[in-house]
Design goal:
The chain is of the alpha/beta class. About 20% of the residues lie in helices and about 25% in strands. It has three domains: about 100 residues, 3-Layer(aba) Sandwich (Rossmann fold), CATH 3.40.50; about 80 residues, no CATH class; about 160 residues, Vaccinia Virus protein VP39 (Rossmann fold).
């Protein structure tokens, strides 16, 4: 299946469904929030969904999803007379799962020229599409009174972002007790498949550590003496291969660090150290001003300091509801960060984990390294 053969799910920017889907047997690719939202809308419009397909189908083996069965992608060959509707914006990543002779619909955007400046590179070459905050954020972050927002895409650096930038008070409501018992209980009301242990437990954390080390080890071929995980929660994502390093975490939440990691609670204290490695993992997608974070990290770097940045790769390929990730990034963004913030790019690319991208930088000495 080629991306160019994927048809548009909607006929206009108001979200009117392509009428062809109501004459066909339909499978939705993707469960979770996006799949449930699409399922409800199709049902309300009079359509019929026969099944879901998901790479984690085994998680739904006993219960199904929305009351119907969930099949793994390799079983799609048994459903060649069906049409597939991809429910999420990252659909270019899974197109190889679908047979060439199946009809596929995805949510291409109806972009309009935007008046917003890019939050990262500052240019005004931006376009936008109508969006909105997911129900969980509407309640937790905005107390039931969510503002309108668009999803904006920068054609220069490929950053995507919510046009509405939450206030410190709104962020405080979202991240207070983040992933704790009350947070999980509230989120499961709207997203019953949310599993904090599955997503962020020790097994998932260990995989993140392994992926980070695998990406870094050819550039960082020694044990760094001093490591700072900037915005690293409790420091649990520092690879175990570096357990003998001096490990620190800069984290404003006040969470107690894990054993062997020391907490630093302000930038002034962090500037007193000579860092060999600074990590920033899955932080920039959550913050209103990612450029400020990058500038702060650069201010902590010496000529020999390496900066490891890890992000989810989130395409700007569709109408999407805004969740906790109010910013999206691509590999092009990783290169542009080097250009914008005077950093050499030593390495950038995909991580082994699905959807992740990373880069290693140092302070620029002789121009960008492609």
């Amino acid at each position: 299946m080629k991306i160019t053969e994927v048809e548009h799910l909607y006929t206009d920017r108001n979200g009117t469904f392509n009428p062809d889907i109501f004459d066909e047997k339909v499978i939705i690719y993707g469960c979770k929030n996006s799949g449930k939202h699409l399922y409800d809308r199709i049902q309300k419009a009079g359509g019929q969904v026969e099944a879901f397909v998901d790479r984690r189908a085994e998680e739904y083996e006993k219960t199904g999803f929305c009351g119907i069965k969930v099949i793994p992608p390799f079983k799609l060959n048994s459903y060649k007379t069906y049409s597939v509707i991809i429910s999420f914006v990252f659909w270019p990543q899974i197109i190889e799962d679908i047979a060439d002779d199946m009809k596929v619909y995805a949510d291409y955007p109806f972009w309009e020229k935007s008046g917003s400046r890019c939050i990262l590179c500052g240019c005004n070459e931006t376009v936008s599409v109508r969006s909105g905050f997911v129900p969980f954020l509407q309640e937790r972050m905005f107390l039931g009174n969510a503002p309108e927002t668009d999803w904006v895409h920068c054609r220069n650096c490929e950053v995507s972002f919510s046009s509405y930038r939450p206030t410190e008070e709104e962020f405080g409501r979202l991240y207070s007790g983040y992933r704790g018992e009350e947070y999980s209980k509230q989120r499961k009301i709207y997203e019953p498949w949310y599993d904090n242990e599955l997503l962020f437990g020790e097994e998932a954390t260990e995989k993140r550590r392994r992926d980070a080390f695998a990406f870094c080890h050819d550039i960082i071929d020694h044990v760094p003496k001093a490591i700072l995980d900037y915005g690293g929660d409790r420091g649990q994502y520092i690879p175990k291969e570096w357990d003998h390093s001096e490990r620190y975490v800069y984290e404003v939440s006040g969470n107690a660090p894990i054993d062997g990691v020391k907490a630093i609670d302000n930038l002034e204290n962090a500037m007193q150290f000579d860092w060999d490695l600074i990590m920033n993992c899955h932080v920039l997608e959550h913050v209103s001003d990612p450029g400020e974070i990058i500038c702060n990290i650069r201010s902590l770097m010496n000529d020999h300091t390496l900066f490891y940045l890890e992000l989810p790769c989130e395409f700007a390929t569709g109408n999407m509801s805004v969740h906790e990730h109010i910013n999206g990034f691509t590999k092009r963004t990783l290169q542009m960060i080097g250009e914008k913030y005077d950093l050499d790019v030593l390495k950038f690319g995909n991580l082994d984990c699905g959807g992740g991208i990373a880069a290693i930088y140092r302070r620029r000495t002789c121009g960008l390294i492609e």
